[in-house]
Every structure is written in structure tokens, then in C-alpha cells.
Amino acid sequence: MKIRRILATAVAVAVTTPAVMLSVTPAFADTKPDSKPDSRAGTKTAAQTPAKPTVKELEKALAEAEKAHDAAVLAERAAYDAVEAAVSDTAPLTVAAKAARKAADEAAAAKSDADKAVTDAQTALDTLTEEATEAERTAAEKALADAKTAAATAATTATTAEAEAEAAEELATDAKVAAFTALAKAQNATKEALAAVTAAEAALERAKKEEEENPGGGDGDGDGGEGECVDEPGLTTVVKGLPSSVTAGTSTTFSVRVANGTGKDLDKVLTYASVHATDKTGAKDIAKYLKLTWSTTKSPKWQKVDGDLYIDAIGALKDGAQADIKLRLTVDAKTPAGQGLTFIAGDYFNKDGSCGLTPDAAVNEFDIEAASGKPAPKPTPKPSTTAPAAGNGVTPQGSGTSVPATTTSTLAATGSSDATTQLALASGAAVALGAGAMFLVRRRKTGAGA
Description:
Helices cover about 35% and strands about 30% of the residues. By secondary structure, the chain is of the alpha+beta class. The protein folds into two domains: about 1-40 and about 230-445, Immunoglobulins (Immunoglobulin-like, Sandwich), CATH 2.60.40; about 55-215, Helix Hairpins. The strands form three sheets. Strands 3, 5, 7, 10, 12, 13, 14 and 15 form an eight-stranded mixed beta sheet that branches. Strands 4-6-11-8-9 form a five-stranded antiparallel beta sheet, with no helix packed on it. A hairpin with a 5-residue loop joins strand 12 (about 340-350) and strand 13. Helix 1 (about 55-85) packs antiparallel against helix 3 and helix 2 runs antiparallel to helix 3 (about 135-215). It is elongated.
């Protein structure tokens, strides 16, 4: 039997107050059981097995997904043009900022000249000899007083001009940030729209193939016992003991408890475990430095999570029972400072061909500290944040929170100005409400005896 799930995962990083945020939503799940129904297991009811969409319905869904993707592509192009305009030297706010800066520099120079005039006037007064006439001394004192008045006026003008220049520059920067934020959202929307098209195409292709293989309905095995995998809220995974911060060069042990509250015995339960990480900019994937291994009381030797990111350690799980699995997160000494997360989920399948999966992933966020003596990256400006959207299909665990986030990427080299590229690279997550990376993760387990 195969259990498949495509998970669209958005990882966001807020640079100065790092927090990795994950949104996991099942795009679709399908099964093709290899085993026949077992007389010991029950039969799935209509409530457990949702009705399959028809080929016509799937064709309509694909057309809508393609339409949405086309619109997203156009919106991304417009957002890119807006970025180019925002970083251009001829952008109105940039022109205004440059003019304000020039005025501030000129006012500062005038203040410097006025201060020098005060010094010169004071020197002239101090160097008057006893032979100087009263008129000469009065003139020197007046020159000093006039110089001080002019210096005070110049200082006020310089202070005002500097404040106006800083405000104008801030407006110009905000416009660039807003443009990059909009581009990041548009890029993320395009990726999500493309993922929806891919999922719709796969679902349609699968439905057509099943229709060709089974023109009269049924399941292809002649037993009528095959159905879709279902979301099973009663199968839960809870992570315990994962700290909010780990250090490069160390290992951390924590655990996951899988509980069967489905109201039925489960013939085989599998645990899905994955770890992701980015550096503090959110632009670099550093998951290769992080490794997960597992062990249980019956199998105390530490073992690698398999290539499909599954842990086959529980086996059968009776209704109301629970099982614990130890997990060890090893962080390579070369790992740079950043943020990471784990997400844990559960799947089951029974001998009668029924199967299910946890609708939510248990998400745990943690900071990654560089090894002692390794310089931390320079901080970047703190970005603004957005409120979480409702119904994102995530069960947050541990110290962090789960918030959907936009995904950004560096602008491609398509002739854009150096300022565009430098701003995209240097600002990173800060210019796009926490920029991140999109992961498409396939959950798959093959073979009842695997």
C-alpha cells in the first residue's frame, strides 16, 4: 500500500527576533492498497471515506487552477516592474530624498562656516590691544554678537534640514521595502498557484487512469474494498522535550508520543519526522547540517529516519493505546546561526485497505546558535510582521508559534540595476515581512512490510 501526501511548507524568518514559522496543508492524499481486506478489520463507512470527485469536476478544478496561475504570473510581473521603478534613481521619492540630502549637506556646511566666523570674531576681539579705541572695541564686540546670532540661525537650519533629509530618505526606503514585500507575496502566490496546478493535474491524471482501468466502477481488485485515505483527528502526535534553542556541535534528545484515539485498532502505524532550517537571513537552507535519528525501548540502538522520512517503529496500535519514540537531533559543528523546526505526523493503514493520516502536523520551532567562537552574522533591520491566518492546518508545539509567511527569492539577473540586486541580497527577510523558502515535501511509504 502507498500513502502519499504533498505538503506545501512556507518557512519564514524574522531576522532580529528569529522565529521560524511553518504552514503545512495537505494538498491531496491517495492510496493504492496492495493487500486484500482482512475479515478481522472493520469496513469503512461513507462518513470515513469522502466521495471521489468526478473527472469532469477535476477538469473544471484544473481549469480554475490554471486561470489562477496565469493571473498570479501577471501579478508577479507587475510587482517586479514596481520594484524596478522603486529602486530607480528617477523614482520621485528617491529624487526628493537626494534633494533633501543635498540641502542638509549645504546647511551643515553653512553652519560650519558660521561657527568659524564666531571663532574668528572672538579671536579678533581677544587680540585687541590696550591702544585700541573704544570704537574699535565696540565694532569687534558687535561683530562677535552678529556672528553668534548667525551661527545660531545656521544651527537651527542645519538641524531642520537634517531631519527633513532623514524623513525623505526613510520614505524612499519604505517605498523600496513595500515594493519588495509586494514582489515577495506575488512570487509566493505564483508558486502556490503552480503547486495547485500540479496537484490538480496529478489528481485528474489519476482519476482518468482509474476510470480506464475500472470502467464499471469498483477498485480493480474485484473486492470493492478500496478507498481513499482519510484525515484521522483521533491519531495524534505530541512532541516533548525539544528545547527552544540548540547549539552547533551538540545533540539533543526529545520524544514523540503517538496516541490512537480513533475508536478502532490500527494494524500498522508509521511516524513521519522531518527537520528544516535556514540561516538568520532566511535565504540559505542549512538543513543538511541537521540529522534526526530514533530509538525505542524495544530497539534502543539509534537508527536513521528512512529515506521517505518515516519511522517504522510502532507497528500495530490498539484503540486507546499510545507509543513513545525517542528522537535525537544532531547539529553539525559547522552549522551557522539560524532557525529550525521539526514537524511530526502519523499515518496508519489496516489490512482491509483502509488508511488515514493526522490532518495536522506537530510543529516545533527552535533557534540554532553557532558553535562557540564562531562569529554571528551582522543583524539586519527588524521587519514588520503579519497576523496569522485562520485555519492553516497546523498544530504548533513547543515555544514557537505557527504563522503563514510569504516566500521570496533574489531577483533574477535580467538586466536590473545593481541597486535592485544589492537591496534584495542585503535586506533578505527584512524587506519582505520575513522572507523564506518554499519546500515541497512528499510523504510516501511503500509496502505493508516496509
